[in-house]
């Protein structure tokens, strides 16, 4: 009875969400774990040899992390809106299921127009997400050069003032550079992880949703030893309370 759980929408969700989740539970997940481990190790090494460079490099990495979190949140919101307004998949499945009826009623052109409109709406949403993902990609893939610029500027100042030896300073700079490379290697999987997060949320919402009409497997199970009488039973689905499915139902089941 819930419009979000129409057969077409459920089939679309299961057909798209499960592959989106599966896409990150492979070598890409390991790559991200390797990158995070490398970043932590590089930050520790940089602090050991030159804390001035390490503080700057860590600040840049944290700034990039906040930017990526903001972009991920924006894309997640767009994904949820796109899923809620995804009519193209539902229309396509309903057309396939009722193709003979549509042909007999000579409504092929009308349904094709509906599908084309829904597909164009999906395309516009994907283009908007593509722009955000492009911004993220350009920032992360050029992050090493920003790191190089700032860390060398601070490192030269540290060497000039004699706070650290050139050997230790360059070790700290190289450590932060390797951390930036780890960021670049893992950030390319950003779109897949954002899609997987949204898809997992939608799938688990479907799995753990409790119907408002009650759970079939819960409730009392009395042992009945007599006749059963339904007298003037009324029922309507929660989504359509003014459209009763049963009204004045009378029904009797005799013992045995």
How would you describe this protein?
The chain is mainly alpha-helical and 256 residues long. The protein has two domains: 151 residues, no CATH class; 29 residues, no CATH class. The protein has a two-stranded antiparallel sheet. α2 packs antiparallel against α8, α3 packs antiparallel against α6 and α3 crosses α9. It is found in: Membrane. InterPro entries: ABC1_TM_dom (IPR011527), ABC1_TM_sf (IPR036640), P-loop_NTPase (IPR027417), Type_1_exporter (IPR039421). It holds the Pfam family ABC_membrane. This is PGP-14. GO terms for molecular function: ABC-type transporter activity; ATP binding.
DSSP summary: helix tally: 9
Largest sheet: 2 strands, antiparallel
* Residues in β-strands, percent: 5-15%
Task: Show unreliable segments.
Answer: none
Net shape:
elongated
Number of domains: 2
Assign the structural class, choosing from mainly alpha, mainly beta, alpha/beta, alpha+beta, or little secondary structure: mainly alpha
- What string, H for helix and E for strand, traces the elements in order? HHHHHHHHHEE
Radius of gyration: 29 Å
- What's the average pLDDT? 83
How many strands appear in the DSSP assignment? 2
Cα distance spanning the termini: 34 Å
Widest sheet, order of strands: 1-2
Helical fraction = over 70%
Helix-strand blueprint:
Blueprint: H1 7-22, H2 27-49, H3 51-84, H4 88-97, H5 99-104, H6 108-141, H7 143-161, H8 166-187, H9 190-208, E1 228-235, E2 246-253
Antiparallel strand pairs: 1-2
Helix pairs in contact: 1-4, 1-9, 2-3, 2-8, 3-6, 3-7, 3-8, 3-9, 4-6, 6-8, 7-8
